[in-house]
Amino acid sequence: MDDPLGFLPGYVLRRASIATMGRLHQHLSAHDLRATEASLILLIGERAGLTQSEAGRILGIKRANMVPLTAKLEARGLLERLQLTGRSQELVLTAIGKRMLTKVRTAITAHENETMARVPKDLRAHVIPILTALWGPDTDAN
Amino acid sequence: MDDPLGFLPGYVLRRASIATMGRLHQHLSAHDLRATEASLILLIGERAGLTQSEAGRILGIKRANMVPLTAKLEARGLLERLQLTGRSQELVLTAIGKRMLTKVRTAITAHENETMARVPKDLRAHVIPILTALWGPDTDAN
DNA sequence: TATTGTTATACTCTATAACTATA
DNA sequence: TATAGTTATAGAGTATAACAATA
Q: Given this model, what pLDDT does residue A141 score?
């Protein structure tokens, strides 16, 4: 296509993200999951019992937007919201949710391999360090 | 923050893109421009007279979504749509649009410098190659 | 008083389908 | 017949404001 903006890091970063998310969506669509939903399942898998608000802070999702997200996954029987103190609630995976977790991990692993395979071998070790540096510390999405 | 998903390239890529776009938006808000609008202005600056559909193809914007985009910039007096053949039209910057172009270039340059400054010096040369590889079509990368 | 969960709402971006006209 | 521009619309994702309950 010979994109004249291809030398702009911010532009190429955005295009790379969109393209990669599109490929991820193909992997996840078999399980009828959005990337955000999959990331929440992975997160609970690592940090069972964390709060809805905590999950939102980690994933960069606002409190208000966590509601329909968790509600949808709960309606599908993938997670439970356990009242913790009266004003906060723990998120835990159900048995079905745990089975979904292993499927998500498989899909994500395949996707990550696919993603890294695009990068020339000698540059692969730099992918995470560069992206982490670009992500940066000022990422409070609340 | 200690994000347990921070080792996933796709996840970190998305977070990096969102964070970088947020910083870009800060630079562009002074000119009341969205990133997409700025990218179109930059593109026309490089390829004056290209078609609306061509611009959409290059930027990854659907034909239907180019309409309100160009209409808005035209309403602001930044660009003109010149009937070319009867079914296609050239996009060209007006005098005001050209002045905006230089402002956009300044903002983008500042943003790029800011972005690259986040990356450790010895990794900066790898940013564009890695992101381009992640963006692009399937290739044999090794 | 600050935080959590919630509801309602609005705005942006993107996607699709259908229509007109033109090459 | 394929393409360019257009319109209308629907779906995500994200943003804010306000409220009740609770620590």
A: 34
